[in-house]
Amino acid sequence: MNVLVTGGAGYIGSHTVVELLNAGHNAIIVDDLSNAKADVIDRIETITGKRPVFYKLDCKDKDGLRKVFSENQVDAIIHFAAFKAVGESVKKPLQYYRNNLDSAMAMLEVMEEFGCKKFVFSSSATVYGPNNPHPYKEEMKAIESSSPYGWTKVMIERILTDYCTAHPDFCAILLRYFNPIGAHESGLLGDDPNGIPNNLMPYIGRVAAGQLEKLTIFGDDYPTPDGTCQRDYLHVVDLAVGHLKALEYAENHEGVEAINLGTGNGISVLELVHAFETANDMKLPYVIGPRRDGDLPAFWADAGKAKTLLGWEATHTVEDMCRSSWNFAKNAGK
Ligand code: UD1
């Protein structure tokens, strides 16, 4: 298939492009490089031996998208392009709603003009909101979130669902990710956010590299076995393969499907810190700090639907995630 990947130079997008190319698909990347580096395209070529077509383009630019569709046969879309910092979205809600909603809307409108009917959407477990019991199952109500970032995911899921109702020959797969970490085994691709990281693993990587002094663990008085929050961390390469499976499913199906991509296991912050220390044979300086606003004590996926419907399950271990994260972080920025 010829697959247009928006945000394809980003962390999850770039790993997905590698899996697409390795599986024999063609990838066309649309990315404005607002949170990614141009040399990711070269790195993808180094890994796969194939160079994806690349357009430096803001996904809200409908004329730009029309040009992409005119110059390429596009069979399906994987839509990653979005702002994704939870804390920033609370401070800048208009920017988040404008950017994330307009990108998705522009893409859908241009797809309609060109008759493209397969859409894989980068959603998040955040759509389950604060009130569902875990493990989260797809049939639970997923209609609220705790940040403007999360609300954009809820809203785009709704838009795609309504669009599928109006166009029964359209297929939208809503992939609800849990916590992706880890990096490509080559050490060439990984999570390298601009500025001080908000997410746990990139923060750990900077501490391990000596670029940040110590990790602050946000709270150790949660109702969990060791008092720190539990999450379902999954390897980004497993997540990328999940997109490939979703695409192959979408090729032969119509309608909307929400699918969790997680391992089904909860790991605490302290367990992850210790797993990182063991996997990489080092000590990680950390302190316990206050809770972070908006954090939930614990959640993980019921990963059964992905297995039944897509034949997908996570195969990498926590050790793989920790080792590959460090393999990338120790060379990041060089
Ligand atoms: C959040 C979002 C999720 C989003 C993801 C990636 C929510 C509910 N979740 O997940 O939608 O896809 O970010 O952007 O909005 N921690 C520390 N110290 C740190 C950093 C994190 O202790 O310096 C802890 C947090 O308290 C949390 C865990 O590590 O328990 C994971 O945090 P993080 O990596 O930020 O991901 P989430 O908040 O789970």
Task: Give a written overview of the molecule.
The protein is of the alpha/beta class and 334 residues long. Helices cover 40% and strands 17% of the residues. The strands form 4 sheets. A 7-stranded parallel sheet has the order 3-2-1-4-5-6-11, sandwiched between helices. A two-stranded parallel sheet has the order 7-10. The relative contact order is 0.15. Bound molecules: uridine-diphosphate-N-acetylglucosamine. The site of uridine-diphosphate-N-acetylglucosamine has 21 residues, from helix 7 and strand 8.
Topology of helices and strands:
Blueprint: E1 2-6, H1 11-22, E2 26-31, H2 40-48, E3 53-56, H3 62-71, E4 76-79, H4 86-91, H5 93-114, E5 118-124, H6 148-166, E6 171-177, E7 179-181, H7 200-208, E8 215-218, E9 230-231, E10 233-235, H8 236-251, E11 255-261, E12 267-268, H9 269-280, E13 286-289, H10 304-310, H11 318-329
Parallel strand pairs: 1-2, 1-4, 2-3, 4-5, 5-6, 6-11, 7-10, 8-13
Antiparallel strand pairs: 9-12
Bound molecules: uridine-diphosphate-N-acetylglucosamine (UD1).
Provide a quick synopsis of the model.
The protein is of the alpha/beta class. The chain is built from eleven helices and 13 strands.
Describe the structure using short key phrases.
two-stranded parallel ribbon; 334 residues; 11 helices; 7-stranded parallel beta sheet; binds uridine-diphosphate-N-acetylglucosamine; 17% strand; alpha/beta
Assign an overall shape: globular
First-last Cα distance: 35 Å
Query: Averaging pLDDT over every residue, what do you get?
Result: 97
| Percentage of residues assigned to helices | 40-55%
Residue windows where pLDDT falls under 50 for at least 5 positions: none
Radius of gyration: 19 Å
Count of extended strands: 13
Class inferred from helices and paired strands: alpha/beta
Main sheet specs: 7 strands, parallel
Strand content: 15-25%
Number of helical segments with 4 or more residues: 11
Ions, cofactors, ligands: which are bound?
A: uridine-diphosphate-N-acetylglucosamine
Query: What spatial order of strands do you see in the largest sheet?
Result: 3-2-1-4-5-6-11
* Topology as a string of helices (H) and strands (E): EHEHEHEHHEHEEHEEEHEEHEHH
